[in-house]
Amino acid sequence: xxxxxxxxxxxxxxxxxxxxxxxxxxxxxxxxxxxxxxxxxxxxxxxxxxxxxxxxxxxxxxxxxxxxxxxxxxxxxxxxxxxxxxxxxxxxxxxxxxxxxxxxxxxxxxxxxxxxxxxxxxxxxxxxxxxxxxxxxxxxxxxxxxxxxxxxxxxxxxxxxxxxxxxxxxxxxxxxxxxxxxxxxxxxxxxxxxxxxxxxx
Length: 201
Description:
The protein is mainly α and 201 residues long. It has helices at 4-7, 15-32, 39-46, 50-56, 60-73, 87-102, 105-120, 122-149, 159-175, 183-198. The chain is elongated and about 60 Å long.
């Protein structure tokens, strides 16, 4: 019976091997940080040849991006934002879940390392925008667009600006390690942002 390493020697990805590599990558970057992570360390811990990793992920940044996406979103495309009819509660629930994810020390360290790498690596930044940022922004715009359609937001609101007004403060507080990154702080952010965006609605 072939081992996981042997099964992945062709061009086609073996799902079990891929999952093991990404899980190991996340563990290594959470433990050692992005700067100290190497393909060799990941390969050794995952029990695969480093050539297998390089064949599937050409750079360390691409590997860590996939590992973070896998841990955060799981396989497949991001799911839609909740729509219970209560816009404030729906957005608050999404941001509270984000805060809880940020509070996980392993995820926090992995994401901070990836964020720093994105700043320095334009290609990695482009991949991040295409694979995570823009798909998520579209889900957020879609939820706000539905709110416009039922009169919860002013019809003239620029939805891209609205996304920034609602979600960017949480990212800024996380970046700055602010102490007010709490569910109560998130609720206040959403409440004040929506108060301004409601306008004549």
